[in-house]
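Can anyone check this?
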Amino acid sequence: MQSSRVIRVLAAWLLGLMLAIAAAITTVTLVNTQVFGPHQQVESYLEALRQGEGERALGLLNATVPDANAALLDGPALQRAAAGMEDVTVAQPVSTGGNRAQVDVTYTIDGAEHTTPMLLEKTGTEWLFFSRWEFVPATLPTVEVSVINQNEATLNGTRVLMPEGRNRFAVFYPAEIEAHYTSEFFAAPAQTVAVTDRQRGPGNVNLETAATPALREAVNAQLKTFLDGCAKQAVFQPTNCPFGFETERRVAGPITWSITQYPDAKIEPFNGGWVISPLTGTVQLKTSLQDLFTGVIEPVDLPQEFGFTARLAVTDEEITVTPVVEY
């Protein structure tokens, strides 16, 4: 009787022990998968990007920084690079053989869907039971950026130097890089690229700088002032002006010039600077002329097209337009 009771106690104890062991194994497996699994490393890395913690992200990614500008690898610029990704999903790891696994990250940038494979490898264990996963070492990709006739630009909200209009930037991935140039007189519209591959960047980003409306208006205003000054000269050959009139008849009335179409300046990059394309306009001459032989006086109301060039000098404080008239 007593022996039966002992057996039941031992059986209950063994059952409890087995259940405890099974629960422990289940817990270890669950923790190993959910907390120490490769996808958790990916989640931690993406969170570091979102927080703009470049040093932490670099350590997690186990990456080498190439010989390039590091302006996009930390702080607000890094946060903006990560903020461009939407609908981010981290897939379950898939074994690629040996101790390696691939974790796919899917997301959208500007509405376009992308997938970035993250390659990790098992490098040991933690506390005897839990796997230690690390990213397979790689070198960060780079983005080449150029800007016409400027020595700076803005990348992800951060102003960066562009020696001779070019620079190369190291970038984390996945990320969105936005580049633009904006000033009072010159601007380049924003260009956005997606960095999706750990092996290479998206190529070159070329910022096509052009004159702003403010600069064109200022240049046109100076050209108008110049031409209005020419039109005020009541002579057939206004001094240093792009239009005139020749005749062998005698002037028999006042000479009046009026600009009927002013030039609209087109400003283009050239040889590291800015030039104004050849200018054209129309002027109207009104006067009266007398024939030297017959004495007949005839009114003259003559439209005339004219053309000239102008030099342009622009600083942060001043715009100078210098008309060039060839005779």
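Reply from J.R.: I decoded it. The chain has five helices and 22 strands.
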